[in-house]
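A common beginner's mistake is to predict each chain separately and then try to dock the pieces by hand. The better habit, illustrated here, is to supply every component at once so that their relative placement is modeled jointly.
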Amino acid sequence: MALPSYATPVQRTYYYAYLFFCAVVFFFLIAPLFAIIPISFSVSPFMVFTEGMLAWPPDPEAWSLRWYKNMIGDCSADVVSSTVPCSTKWMKGTVNSFYIGIIATVIATALGTLAALGLSRPHMPYKGLIMAILISPMIVPLIITAAGMFFFYARINLVYTFTGVILAHVALATPFVVITVTATLVGFDMNMVKAAQSLGAKPIRTFFKVIMPLILPGIISGALFAFITSFDEVVIVMFMASIDQLTIPKQMWAGIRQEISPVILCMATCLVLLSIFLLTTVELLRRRSERLRGIKSR
Amino acid sequence: MEDCISTSALLTTDGVPLKQSLKKAERKNKLRAFLLVFPLLLFIIVTFVMPIGDMLFRSVDDSQINGVFPNTFNEYKKWDKEKDVLPPEEVYKALFEELAYGEKIQIGRALTRMNYSKSGWKSLIKTTSRQIKKAVKKDELPNNYKEFLISANEKWADPTFWYAMGQMVNNTTPIYYWNALDRTYDQDQNVVMQDEKRRIYIKTWIKTLKISVYVTIFCLILGFPVAHLLANLPLRYSNLLMIFVLLPFWTSLLVRTTAWIVMLQQNGVINGILVWLGILSDDGRLQLVYNETGTLIAMTQILLPFMILPLYSVMRVIPKSHMRAAQNLGAKPATAFWRVYLPQTIPGMSAGGLLVFVLAIGYFITPELVGGKDGKLIGHWIAYHLKTTLNWGLCAALGAILLGVMLIFYWLYNKIVGIDNIKLG
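With all components supplied together, the output reads:
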C-alpha cells in the first residue's frame, strides 16, 4: 500500500488525504466508546467532562468511584446525590440479564447446532426455504417482532414472564448459531464420520467424539453471538417484560429516558469491557477453527 | 456386444432392484437430515412465524365488533340504502337489544373500534346506552325502537353514522391500512385523505426512507475508503485496524447510543472542543442531538460496520495487478480506479448498501433516544400504538407495511448476494 518512489506530488497529496480520511473514520467509529470511560469516573452528577477533570495537573477531587458504588447498590452518604436515585436496580438487572442470557444461549446453541448439522448434509430437502425461515428472526426489524410476539404471547399468557422473554430471545439468537456453525461445517471432512462409523461408533458417539471437537470453536462463537444478542436486546424486553424481568438494557433505556445519570456510563464501561473480551475470544476461536480445518490462516 | 448387457434391472444382493434400493437410501438420508432441522424449525414457527402471522391477521381483523353486534349487522346488511334514508326498524331493535344485554367490557372495546371509523360513535352509544338501561330497568320496552333511539339521541336520525357502520359489518377491514397511509372514509364511504392536522404517517414514512437513504450514502462514503485501506494493507496491520470496526459491532447498541448523547449534547464533547478551539462562542453551541442530525450521526456510526465488512470481503479478492495493468496500458490513476477497480466492488457496495438500508428503516432504539421530536421514524408509531393508544389494528397495519417494504429489499438482496451468504465478524 505504500506509495511508489516515483509518485508525483499530486499523488502524494491524494495519498495522504486518503490516509487522513481513513484515520478520521476510524476515530469516528471508536471515539464515542472511549469518551464515556473517563466520564464514568467523574464526581459530577452530569455526563460531561468537568473542568477539574481536564485540569493539569490532574485534580483528584474531580474523580471518584461514587457512581460505580451507586451501580452496585451501595447507597452510603458519600455516594447519594439529590438528582441521581440509588437503588439495587442495576444489580437486579445484571442478575436477570445473565439468567435470561445463559438459559437462552444454552437452548439456542443446542437447537441451532442440530439444525446446522442437518442443513450441511447434502441430502437436505428444501434447503433454501428452510434456511430463509430459520434466519428470518434476524432479518425482521425488532419492533415488528416485538409487536407480533406481544399480541401472540398475550393470548397464551406469556407476556410479563421469564418464559416468554426467554422464548423470544432464543428465537432471536438461533440464526446466529445456525450461521456460525454452518460456516464451520463448510469444508468439514465427512470421511471422518464414515471412518468413525466403520470403526463401530454409534451416531451419538460419533457426534461427541469426532464432530463436536472439530466444530467446537464454531459452536462456542455461535453461543457467544447468541449470548450477546440476548444480553443486548431491549425492544422485546421493553414490551414483554415487567419490572420483575428488568434487565441491564431495560434499566439503561429507563436511565437515558428519565434520569440521565453517570451510573449509565459506569454500566456502559463494563459492557465495553465485556465486548472487548467477547471480541477477542471469538477472534481467537475463529483462527483456531481455521487451523483445525486445515485452512491456511490469512 | 449386445448380449453382454443384461436386459433385466440391476439387483442388489437381497434381490431388490438397485434403483429402488438407492431411492430408499436417499429417502432415509433426506429424512435424517430433516429430523435434525425439525426441532428448530418447529420452534421458530411457533415462537416467531406464528406471532408475525397473528400480527398480519390482526391488521385486517374486525371480528371483535362483529361478535358484539351480530344481529344488528345482519339486519343492517338487509337495508336497501337506495329506498330508505334510514335503516329499517329491525336494525334499531337489534341494536337496542345488543346494547341492553351485551357484555360491558366487550361493548367498550367495540366502541373504541367504532371511533376509528368515525369520531362521535363513542359518545353517541354511551348516551344511548344510559337511556336503554333505564328503560330496561323500568321494564318499559318501547313499541317503536326507532323512535326510542332517535329520542334518546337525535344522531340516530343522521344517516352518516349509519353509513359509517357499513365499514364494520364484515369480519375483515382495510381501515387500518388506510389509516396507516393517512387515509380515511368520508360520508359516502369513499377513501379520502385525513384532515391536514392528522396526517402524520405519510410524513413519517417519507422521513424514514429519507433518513435511511442518507445513512446508506454516508456509510458508503465513509466505509469505502476504510474498506479499501483494510483490504490492501499487510495482514498484520489490517487485523489490528479491524478491531476498530469490530469493537463497535460487538458493543451494546444502548452503550453506543448513550455514547453519542454524551458526545453531541449541548455541553458535550464535540461542542466543548469546538468552543475550546474558538470556532463557536460559548452561547452559540450547536443543537446536535434530539433532532434529525443526531439520528443521522448516531445511525451512521452504528451501521457503518455493516457497510465496511461486505465491502472488505469483496475488495480483498480483487487482484492488485488489475490497477497496475490498467496504468501500464496508459490509464491515469483516476481513470484506472473508475473504469477498472470500482466496477469490481459493485457486489460489495450493493450488499452493504442494502444491508444498511434495510436495517435503517426498521430502526427504533436509536431514533427514539437521540431523535427528539422530529427525528423519530416509523418504529416510534408502531411502539406508540402498541403501548399507549392500544390501537393494535393500526399498529399491526404499520408493522405489516414495514415488513412488506423490508421483504422487497431482502428479495433484492437475495437476488444480488444470496441470503445464505451472510457472514458474521
